[in-house]
What does this fold into?
Amino acid sequence: MENYENIDFTTDTFKTQLKEALQRNEVGITFTKRDGSERTMQCTLSTSRIPGEQLPKGGDTSTSSTQAQAVFDIQKQGWRSFRWDSIKSVTFPSKF
It folds into this structure.
């Protein structure tokens, strides 16, 4: 596992790297929620890891904006999002 923290998670380069990893695997993301609490979630955008009934219509899992990213939360079994500027750390799988 590769753990990243204390870097600028808002750069286009990092966003692209994270989205590519999410398309292939589960990624651990720690971020600050809007209420100020900290949360760590195991998430993915890999269609093979998302239950069929949870897949977006058309199968496109790339929903994001310049400020936030939608992901599938493995533990909660539902779609969640995080703000790019709220990320505290990211843990990538060994092979990503």
User: Anything to note?
Assistant: Helices lie at 12-24. The CA atoms of residues 31 and 91 lie 12 Å apart. The first helix runs from residue 12 to 24.
